[in-house]
Amino acid sequence: MPPFSNQTAMELQGSVDSMDVSAMRKENRYAYVTLLTRDPYLPGVCALLYSLKQVNTKYPVICVVTKDVTQKAREEIELFGGVVREVEKFLPFPEDQANNYANALWIDCWTKLEFWEFTEYKKCVYLDADMKVYKNLDHLFEMEGDFLAAQDCYHGGDPEDRVRNHFHDPEKCFYSSSCPDKIRPYFNAGFFVFTPSKDIAKDMKQKAIDKDVTTFTFAEQDFMNDYFQGQWEPRVLPYTYNCIKWFARYHMGKPYNKDDIHVLHYVSEKPWVTGRIDPKDEKAIKSGLCHCAEQYDDWHDMWEEAMQAKANNTLGGTIGADKLVSIPKAQPMVTESAVPVGRIG
Ligand SMILES: [Mn+2]
Predict the structure, then answer these.
(1) What is the pTM (predicted TM-score) of this model?
(2) Which amino acids are annotated catalytic?
């Protein structure tokens, strides 16, 4: 079945009943969405919020949390201008069987499928927590299409290699001049523009449950690429909207130009864990991180500024507060030990 249909008006009608109708009349019901499933990623979310604020973002940023996120982390998100919204974790297989799955490392990311439930918003832009925004993104909400994403930097069917060795084969990367045009469209799921829809949410979750996803190395990313196959086009959004940090290593000069970047994506090593990168450091040379030192400096410069603003009490209020539609009350907190898994890329 085609995943998109003209159902939006009907859905909205359904959700109007439980809401302030005057709020629903707002034309621009747009929101950014990000995800936090465990506290160690909190600096990423706060830095993302800070960077969104720096570029004068007009719309609210819904920071989706799951039950393991502490109250303290939730308060910090609000301090940085985000709106906390708790959802149930979604996993298409029993959690205790995760080790039978190639994507065990990234099981928390399946919860992204819940975002299609946010039908009080007409359109949303999802951003991973390990991102820095360099330019205002509000224009994305006005773009046509129910699903937009940017082609990943290299996906040649050797995900194991890609995870372990950051292997990059110009012959297989869409962004290399030597890359054949016939390369398979494959987006990085750290960033996407989407139209919430209860029908799509239900359909996606059911398909994820029904499908054998044991071999899906990149968890929800592989699944979403299957699901949205043919529904998006790699040339619609350039790499600048989800610039994988490795662009600085593999595509310097063409197409990579730092001045063009909208969103930089710190896949794998997180800047809040590594600190600044010394390009002469032996480990940084071995891992290739030495090529991304400037990008990590950018993150840390911003982080220091954000910490200063926090100390000075000048972080400001909720981003896009005047455009918030309706946020269901957060579920009561259940304190449980955090699940020691999470996305590294
Ligand atoms: Mn990421």
Answers:
(1) 0.85
(2) 112
